[in-house]
Amino acid sequence: MKRLPEAEFQVMKAIWAYEPPVTSSMVMGHLSGEKSWPIQSVVTLLSRLVEKGFLRSEKKGKERLYYPLVSKEDYLQFETRNFVKQYHENSFISLLSTLHQDKELTDEDLDDLQEWIRKRRSD
Fold first, then answer.
1. Across the chain, what does the average pLDDT equal?
2. Whole-prediction pTM value?
3. What is the third-level CATH fold of 72-122?
4. Quick one: which of 118, 34, 38 has its CA closest to 110?
5. Using an 8 Å Cβ cutoff, are 48 and 8 in contact?
6. How far apart are alpha carbons 106 and 12 in whole angstroms?
7. In sequence order, what are the residues at sequence separation of 6 or more whose Cβ sits closer than 8 angstroms to the Cβ of residue 64?
8. How do residues 59-109 score in pLDDT, each as one tens digit?
9. What residue segments make up the domains of the chain, in order of their start?
10. Which residues, including other chains, have CB under 8 Å from residue 66's CB and lie 6 or more apart?
11. What would be the CATH architecture of the domain defined by 6-68?
12. What residues pair up with 64 in beta bridges, in sequence order?
């Protein structure tokens, strides 16, 4: 799997927001709140995502239908692993330390983390 450019990621987020199949009109509707996306740009991005293996498309009448081949969870796991590897030398503790130093982690976050660890250990 390869990292997606920001525009392609935004299109995938729109795809993941719907139950497949998804049309370009649905993607446009989802993206309309963020910025003005010309339809041809969205169609181009959808084509690129098909070429990259992130989507499958089929023609049905005048419409083209899109189906995700990569789940949101799988892609986010891929991105997160790469981020931790590249910027934190593959250390989860380094990532947490950075967040804690910048006061990004609240006491509630730390409590949630403790609960998460407790559950993982009991599994």
1. 93
2. 0.83
3. Penicillinase repressor fold (1.10.4040)
4. 118
5. yes
6. 31
7. 23, 24, 46, 57, 58
8. 999 999 999 999 999 999 999 999 999 999 999 889 888 888 877 788 898
9. 6-68, 72-122
10. 15, 20, 21, 22, 23, 24, 27, 46, 50, 55, 56, 57
11. Orthogonal Bundle (1.10)
12. 59
